[in-house]
Design goal:
The protein has helices at 15-27, 67-74, 136-148, 159-167, 191-203, 249-253, 292-306, 374-381, and strands spanning 8-11, 33-36, 43-44, 63-65, 77-79, 83-88, 93-98, 101-106, 109-112, 116-118, 130-131, 151-155, 174-178, 207-209, 214-219, 223-227, 232-235, 237-240, 244-246, 262-264, 275-277, 282-284, 320-322, 329-332, 340-346, 349-355, 361-367. The protein is α/β, with parallel strands linked by helices. The chain folds into 3 domains: 8-117 and 244-306, FAD/NAD(P)-binding domain, CATH 3.50.50; 120-240, FAD/NAD(P)-binding domain; 328-381, Enolase-like, domain 1 (2-Layer Sandwich). The chain has a 5-stranded parallel β-sheet with strand order 5-2-1-9-21, covered by helices on one side. Helix 1 packs parallel to helix 7. It is globular, with a radius of gyration of 22 Å. The relative contact order is 0.13. The model has no long low-confidence stretch (mean pLDDT 95). Bound molecules: flavin-adenine dinucleotide (FAD). Flavin-adenine dinucleotide (FAD) binds next to helix 1, strand 6 and helix 7.
């Protein structure tokens, strides 16, 4: 009697899904592996989406490896444009729907790598020319719109909002940024670095509306945003970049525990047996980390765990970079706010160091020329390990 080995199924083919699959293949070349994606399943680098307009990169040019080559490379079954309709955890099966119909798949282990979705901005809900860029498909839509728009307003001044603002400069467009915060990167960097970034980008023609809430929206020939600062801002096109919510609906529908994200422990395992989560959708030991570095760390650990060697993920200090070459920033935000910032301010950059009360370096933010201290600062905080 022959027994078929049930595959590991990964839902999602973003950085998390594909990184995990690559790590599994390094350990077990033969294990049956299935990946499912609701999109085209081409492999691309999402961080490039906020630097691609400046380089005039078409969506096609952003594809690193197409889905057919990914199938070959990973020796995996990859379902593109496929929707997971339901999951039965007792039978360890799921129903998928795709252009050819419906299938039932069995799994040995199930991994959610389904990412996160842009937070909606309720006042702009029914506004047609309101875009978000969080996938290659979004970029494809926005790429065409960008060429036709004279006047673009970005809502949000976090990392992604600032990167898009910089990316859109020098293209003959009028670019504005609206934020309720007093300066860009408000939750990440000290005020002097945020203000320095703002003024460098203002020199490139970006109009800043800080401390500004959008109170109402009126659409005639263009979109009129009534701001709390009493300004009325006219835009042809709006790009919202106000953060992401982990995708949890699918897990929830299968009674898998969710909080802000899909709840997993340091083995990336949910309380439900043989169910795991990784990437932007995961809430690991209570924290959602929506960056590349934690995904790569998680993929290495989870691949070991799935291949019969349980391995907790360990997160070393992972600084965050702002991809704005005019005024680059690297920040490692302190986790406990019991210490003090010290500053060295130069005409072309700022070195901000955060020391605990007993004198240990717990965080830092470096801008412009001061990025030259990045290795030294990282070394100093490297003794701090999260788990
Ligand atoms: C513009 C931008 C710039 C960024 N820049 C940086 C940077 O410089 N540095 C950094 O560290 N991070 C950056 N990030 C964050 C980083 O890119 C993300 O953390 C990472 O790409 C998330 O990968 P993921 O695989 O978890 O999610 P995603 O890439 O969103 O992949 C999710 C996958 O799940 C699939 N999926 C979702 N729901 C379903 C479903 N129900 N059924 C089937 N499939 C489903 C999707 O189709 C997709 O394939 C940036 C993000 C953005 C948006």
């Amino acid at each position: 009697m022959s027994t078929t080995i049930k595959p590991i199924i990964i839902i999602g083919t973003g950085l998390a899904g594909y990184s995990l699959a690559k790590e599994i293949r390094k350990i077990q070349p033969q294990t049956p592996l299935v990946l499912i994606s609701q999109d085209d399943a081409h492999f691309y680098s999402k961080p490039q989406l906020s630097t691609a307009i400046a380089q005039a990169k078409s969506p096609q040019q952003l594809i690193i490896t197409n889905v057919a080559d990914m199938r070959n490379q990973l020796q995996a079954t990859i379902y593109d444009y496929t929707h997971v309709a339901s999951i039965d955890l007792t039978a360890k099966t799921l129903i998928i729907e795709h252009k050819l119909g419906e299938d039932e798949l069995s799994f040995s282990k199930l991994v959610f790598a389904i990412g996160a979705s842009p937070k909606p901005f309720p006042l702009l809900k029914n506004i047609k020319n309101n875009y978000r860029v969080n996938s290659l498909q979004d970029y494809a839509t926005f790429f065409d719109i960008f060429q036709q728009s004279e006047n673009i307003t970005i809502i949000g001044s976090g990392l992604v909002g600032c990167e898009f603002a910089f990316d859109f400069t020098n293209k003959g467009k009028q670019i504005s940024v609206v934020t309720p915060d007093p300066h860009p990167l408000y939750n990440l960097v000290p005020a002097n670095i945020g203000h320095a970034l703002q003024s460098e980008l203002a020199k490139l023609g970006i109009n800043w509306y800080t401390n500004s809430h959008i109170e109402s929206v009126d659409v005639k020939n263009s979109i009129a945003l009534q701001l709390s600062s009493n300004n009325v801002l006219q835009a042809n096109t709006i790009l919202t970049a106000i953060g992401l919510h982990p995708n949890i609906a699918l897990a929830k529908s299968a009674n898998i525990q969710t909080g802000q994200g899909i709840v997993v422990d340091k083995y990336l395992q949910s309380p439900q047996e043989d169910v795991f989560a990784i990437g932007d959708c995961a809430q690991i030991e209570g924290i959602c980390r929506q960056y590349v570095a934690p995904i790569l760390q998680s993929a290495r650990a989870l691949a070991q765990t799935l291949c019969a060697k349980p391995t907790p993920v360990v997160f070393p200090p992972m600084p965050i970079s702002l991809k704005v070459s005019r005024y680059p920033i690297i920040v490692y935000p302190p986790t406990h706010m019991m210490g003090n910032w010290t500053f060295e301010q130069y005409p072309d950059g700022i070195k901000a160091l955060y020391y605990s009360q007993d004198g240990a370096l717990e965080g830092y933010a470096l801008s412009g020329s001061q990025l030259e201290h990045r290795q030294q600062c990282l070394k100093e905080v490297q003794t701090l390990v999260t788990f």
